[in-house]
Amino acid sequence: MRNTAKLIFLISFLLTAAFSMAEEGRSPSIKASINRKRIFIGDRIRYKVEAIPGLAAFEVKFPQFKDGSIGGCEIKDSGDRWLDMTSYYVGKRKIPSIEIKYRKKGESFWKAGLTNELAFTVESVLPKGMRLYDIKDIKGPLYPFSLSKLITWIIVSFIILWMSIKILKMFRKKTPPKLPYETALDELEAAGGQFSSGGGKKEYYVRISDAIRRYIEMVFSLRAPEMTTQEFLMSLNNAPELSSGYKDSLKLFMEACDLVKFAKHTPSAAEMDSVLAAARRFIEETKEAYVHI
């Protein structure tokens, strides 16, 4: 009888110890939550560890998730006790129980525990009742008229533009070309202006003599610009329109210019004014010859 009582006591003791050890080895129920029950495709949902029984302040370590996802949800970001995740599949989704590690703040030993399962719904961004294959391709551009009409309008526009330009040219006042004496006087004026602005005396004489040579070529048909002074003076014999007085004046004019151009003569201001006046006088007195030739 005593042996039976001892056996019963021993069995009871062992069962009590085993039960106590099992209670100590069981993981506590870790409470987790999500901030939204319904989301659209691609929206984020936050999964958070809220509480661990018996611990007011604790730290959490999430496991390494395979392929960065859990329960068909893609993990986008993580932080202290939370995970941000999303799903690209329409319908009800379930976040399974997660085995996480936790510890009381200040302790070094980690314990393991399981969170509760959570569920949420993923909705499509399409209008209700609309299926994916109902979406049609965009329409092409709408033309207000046909290609043939466009080409016709372009041709007509070019014709109108061409006719407008022609009409404007007809009514535009044409500037008559300058007469030879006008051109020569302008060149003499330019030579004097250049010298007044600091030009050299030699260049001054070159420009004046060239102006007279070009004038004679245009009025009396002599190739004066291409001749030497001697050739030019001899060719004056073939210009009956020029009197002997003009021929003598031209000889003196050309010789005076050559002294400065080739003999390095330095003319005085009076000489320079005299040669310019002689050139102007010759042009003014012979300009009518161009009209009568």
Structure, described:
This protein folds into three domains: 26-123, Sandwich (Immunoglobulin-like); 142-172; 180-292, Up-down Bundle (Four Helix Bundle (Hemerythrin (Met), subunit A)), CATH 1.20.120. The protein is 45% helix and 19% strand. The chain has helices spanning 2-25, 147-171, 180-196, 201-220, 229-235, 244-261, 269-286, 289-292, and strands at 29-34, 38-40, 45-51, 58-61, 69-70, 73-79, 82-86, 91-95, 99-104, 111-115, 118-123. The strands form two sheets. An eight-stranded mixed sheet has the order 4-9-10-1-3-7-6-5, with no helix packed on it. It has a three-stranded mixed sheet with strand order 2-11-8, with no helix packed on it. The longest helix is centred in the middle third of the chain and has 25 residues, at 147-171. The chain is elongated and about 175 Å long. The model is unreliable at 17-28 (pLDDT under 50).
Précis, in short:
By secondary structure, the protein is an alpha+beta fold. It has helices at 2-25, 147-171, 180-196, 201-220, 229-235, 244-261, 269-286, 289-292; strands at 29-34, 38-40, 45-51, 58-61, 69-70, 73-79, 82-86, 91-95, 99-104, 111-115, 118-123.
Widest beta sheet: strand line-up? 4-9-10-1-3-7-6-5
Note the total helix count: 8
Which fold name fills CATH's third level, the topology of the largest domain?
Four Helix Bundle (Hemerythrin (Met), subunit A)
Helix content: 40-55%
Kindly, what is the distance between the CA atoms of the first and last residues, rounded to a whole number of angstroms?
170 Å
The domain tally reads 3
